[in-house]
Amino acid sequence: MNWIQWRLTIKGQVSEPLEALLLDSGAVSITYQDAANRPVLEPDPGEIRLWDDLILIALYQADVNSCEIEGVLSNLPVWQDVRSSHWEVLEDKDWARAWMDNYHPMQFGESLWICPTNAEPPNPDAINIMLDPGLAFGSGTHPTTALCLEHLEKKIQGGEEIVDFGCGSGILAIAAVKLGATKAIGTDHDPQAVIASRDNAERNGVSENQFPVFHSDDFHTQPCDGVVANILAETLKHLSTEISELIRPGGWIAMSGILESQIDSVKTAYQKTIDFDQPTILDDWVLLTGTKK
Questions:
Q1: How large is the average pLDDT for residues 26-43?
Q2: CATH 3.40.50.150 intervals, the chain
Q3: Sequence ranges of the chain with CATH classification 3.30.70.260
Q4: For residue 47, what pLDDT band results from cuts at 50, 70 and 90?
Q5: pLDDT given at position 120
Q6: For 178-197, what is the mean pLDDT?
Q7: How far is CA 275 from CA 51, 279, 293, in A?
């Protein structure tokens, strides 16, 4: 069936009460977009940050009475902060499949490929990881994931035990094992990430012994040969002591999820324990690597 979506340009301060009213009116989802093409940089832990002016998109089933809903809301005080609005028909489609149509095999380094499950690997003799986008972060398309994958492709020599801190989809840990690591221990605070990592590992023939995955509440391990952490810069800084303690002396670290403007503050948080290499930068995103002192 088709859907109808209502696009409202509003002041950010009324987003919460307006969202509640729209959900009460029958909206099945609410999406926010920037109305002025301004970035929202990384929020503080626990903070939900929105733009001052934004576009709210409310999705309804096709049989909704749009005139009645707009008539009710236009008489409420919150309507004073609505700058513009219009309704539009949204043709139904298999959105996951539509996304997949534009998701193609990607090469990282000389020997590593990430391939969607509906595609034939371009090089059957390469190290191929079959992975579809999902709820957990990490499909290879984001610069931070690409930076980490290319680093692992060069860094893993075989026989290492590493930790994937904030494992998301499990893509980095699975790549490490496929590249020759003996064990890649994954941890994430998101239960969905734990499920996605285990599913992706099974799909790629990586056993639970090779890639044990833990929710952060249950995560405990001894120092290992290396840590890869593709998470947010503020989290990297906040957990610098915990992450550093995961690495044995002489071991390595690879961190991404960092913007160029955040390089110095992240390095400062680790300066007592890590000797850093030169940063690697891709599309304003940074990979910081180094060695445990």
A1: 69
A2: 143-292
A3: 3-92
A4: very low
A5: 86
A6: 94
A7: 38, 12, 7
The CATH code of domain 3-92 reads 3.30.70.260
Any bridge partners for residue 230, and if so which? 256
78-128 pLDDT, tens per residue?
Answer: 888 888 889 988 766 555 555 556 568 889 989 999 988 878 888 999 999
CATH topology for 143-292 is Rossmann fold (3.40.50)
The amino acid occupying position 244 is S
pLDDT at 136 over 50: no
Q: What separation in angstroms does the CA of 194 have from each of 78, 175, 228, 230, 246?
A: 40, 16, 16, 15, 19
